[in-house]
Amino acid sequence: MTVLGIDPGYAIIGYGVVNAEKSAFTPVAYGCITTDADTDFNERLKLIFEGMNKVIEKAKPDCIAIEKLYFQNNQKTAIMVAEARGVILLCAQLHNIEIFEYTPLQVKTAVTGYGKAKKQQVMDMTKRLLKLRAMPKPDDAADALAIAVCHIQAAGTTLRQRLMNGL
Q: Cα separation of 45 and 50, whole Å?
């Protein structure tokens, strides 16, 4: 199973492609799609769509795991990220790729076994599971790998059922 994990945004969209066979995880590719702040927002959405198309066409994932939106403060930012996320989801739909969505709590639980794990703990466990020498930079790529690992850990298990039912 090849999973494309996505950490959505509109300035930086992290992606991580992980292949899983039995209990072996292999990182295939990771990186970020970036857009410049001085670019018109509609043009940024187009760039995100084009970048995501390239990633999907190259990786040929079996499914996509994407983080659900979670915002505490800035409503304007939330709306812009939601719009970018919509473009990413549309791209996946156009490629007929199944989409799975996970909250930050679900990612932490699946990767570390503890829903209140700190970001560094999630990154460390992701690094171990993928046998990486160093965690990718920027953090958005590392987060995307964790989201892919979350789906692999949860796929076809009772953990997945629990995550989908809110633990």
A: 9
Angle at 103 between CA 110 and CA 61, to 5 degrees: 70
The model's pLDDT over 88-134, given as tens digits with 9 standing for 90+, comes to 999 999 999 999 999 999 999 999 999 899 999 999 999 999 999 99
Q: Could you tell me the two tokens for 163? A: 């995550």
CA dist 118 and 123 (Å) reads 9
Q: What is the pTM of this model?
A: 0.90
> Where exactly are the structural domains of the chain?
2-164
What pLDDT, in 10s, does the model give residues 22-68? 878 999 999 999 999 999 999 999 999 999 999 999 999 999 999 99
Positions marked catalytic: 7, 67, 140
Superfamily of domain 2-164: Ribonuclease H-like superfamily/Ribonuclease H (3.30.420.10)
